[in-house]
């Protein structure tokens, strides 16, 4: 009798736990508390360099002559597919995303697509983006294995070297070492061509990058994850940081502060724009909403950034979705 009671209690607890998890995953945090941080409506003509946040860690930089894209992730498979099935690029979603961003066609001005690491939500779509636009796929050996698996020709891919300046039009891009946020998906290298459909977990991290961009006297840093290599950015300067905060919320206060110090304070940034906070299991055609708990804690991440920004005089702004921004607006040269 006692065994039956114990088993019944366990089953009830599991059912309650499953119901609670399902409720949390379907009820993301609201954004009412960060309304004041939303990117302001442009009141003056934009500067030549326009930056667009396209969701997750996909960022488009365009000066009218040359464009660069981080990641290029548009497929956004849903939760069930990611956890229980196999993933692959959604060519139609990629085509529509590129059209919406204004970088379509093999003669587009997109010079390079650069995944910040090789997880599926960063590198999976990049070879198809390169194929459709004529851009160069540049990244780690793991990213190139993703490109090979998709059949991208070798002359359309470039193995990136750390600390090496690459020139694209008026842009100078330099990649510095980074690490993924400490999670169960951190680490690993893709050693063979990865031909989808495959499990999402087959897209191993490879080399993570902090991407530094210099353009006409302005400097910008983009991170795709809330991890870091201590000392990797010493001597680097950036006016603005597009700061990847994915999975940062549940991390310890010590980790958050170390990430800020190594990534924001070290480069002397005067503005921080959080990215990689949105739910990448919903289509990009829907309004962006934060990643649901318990997978992240958007409120904790933003509360930390607001406190640090206020204490150190760093402007914190949430990016406008898909809208051109002058990310240096209001900052002195």
Q: Can you tell me about this structure?
A:
The protein has 333 residues and is of the alpha/beta class. The strands form two sheets. A seven-stranded mixed beta sheet has the order 7-8-9-10-11-12-13, with helices on one face. A six-stranded mixed beta sheet has the order 1-2-3-4-5-6, with helices on one face. Helices cover 28% and strands 18% of the residues. A hairpin with a 2-residue loop joins strand 9 and strand 10. The chain is globular and about 50 Å long. The chain has one domain: Metallo-beta-lactamase, Chain A. This is MBL fold metallo-hydrolase. Pfam families: Lactamase_B_2.
List keywords for this structure.
333 residues; Metallo-beta-lactamase, Chain A; seven-stranded mixed beta sheet; 13 strands; 28% helix; globular; Metallo-B-lactamas; MBL fold metallo-hydrolase; RibonucZ/Hydroxyglut_hydro; UPF0173_UPF0282_UlaG_hydrolase
**What is the count of structural domains?**
1
CATH structural architecture: 4-Layer Sandwich
Per DSSP, the total helix count is 8
**What is the mean predicted local confidence, pLDDT?**
91
Main-sheet strand order equals 7-8-9-10-11-12-13
N→C terminal distance: 76 Å
Report the structural category: alpha/beta
Question: How many DSSP-defined strands?
Answer: 13
Q: Could you name the ranges where pLDDT drops below 50 across 5 or more consecutive residues?
A: 5-25
CATH class: Alpha Beta
Biggest β-sheet: count, sense, barrel?
Answer: 7 strands, mixed
What is the CATH homology-level superfamily? Answer: Ribonuclease Z/Hydroxyacylglutathione hydrolase-like
Give, in order, the helices and strands: HEEEHHEHHEHEEEEEEHEHE
Helix content: 25-40%
Using the CA coordinates, give the radius of gyration. Answer: 20 Å
Content of β-strand: 15-25%
């Amino acid at each position: 009798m006692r065994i039956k009671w114990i088993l019944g209690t366990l089953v009830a607890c599991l059912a309650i736990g499953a119901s609670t998890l399902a409720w949390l995953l379907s009820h993301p945090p609201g954004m009412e508390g960060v309304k004041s941080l939303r990117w302001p409506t442009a009141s003056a003509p934009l500067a030549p360099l326009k930056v667009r946040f396209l969701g997750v860690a996909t960022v488009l930089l365009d000066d009218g002559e040359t464009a660069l894209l981080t990641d290029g992730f548009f497929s956004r498979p849903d939760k069930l597919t990611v956890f229980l099935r196999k993933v692959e690029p959604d060519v139609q979603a990629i085509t529509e995303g590129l059209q919406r961003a204004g970088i379509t066609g093999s003669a587009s001005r997109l010079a390079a697509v650069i995944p910040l690491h090789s997880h599926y939500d960063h590198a999976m779509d990049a070879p198809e983006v390169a194929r459709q636009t004529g851009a160069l796929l540049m990244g780690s050996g793991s990213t190139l294995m993703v490109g090979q698996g998709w059949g991208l020709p070798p002359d359309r891919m470039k193995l990136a070297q750390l600390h090496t300046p690459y020139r694209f039009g008026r842009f100078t891009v330099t990649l510095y070492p980074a690490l993924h946020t400490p999670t169960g998906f951190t680490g690993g290298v893709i050693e063979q061509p990865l031909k989808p459909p495959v499990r999402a977990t087959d897209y191993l991290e490879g080399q993570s990058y902090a991407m530094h961009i210099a353009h006409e006297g302005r400097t910008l840093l983009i991170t795709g994850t809330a991890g870091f290599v201590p000392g990797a950015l010493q001597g680097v300067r950036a006016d603005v940081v597009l700061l990847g905060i994915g999975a940062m919320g549940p991390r310890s206060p010590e980790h958050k502060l170390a990430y800020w110090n190594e990534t924001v304070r070290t480069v002397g940034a005067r503005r921080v724009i959080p990215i990689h906070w949105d739910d990448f299991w919903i289509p990009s055609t829907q309004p962006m909403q934060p990643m649901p708990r318990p997978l992240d804690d958007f409120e904790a991440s933003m509360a930390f950034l607001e406190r640090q920004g206020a204490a150190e005089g760093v402007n914190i702004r949430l990016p406008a979705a898909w809208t051109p921004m002058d990310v240096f607006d209001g900052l002195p040269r």
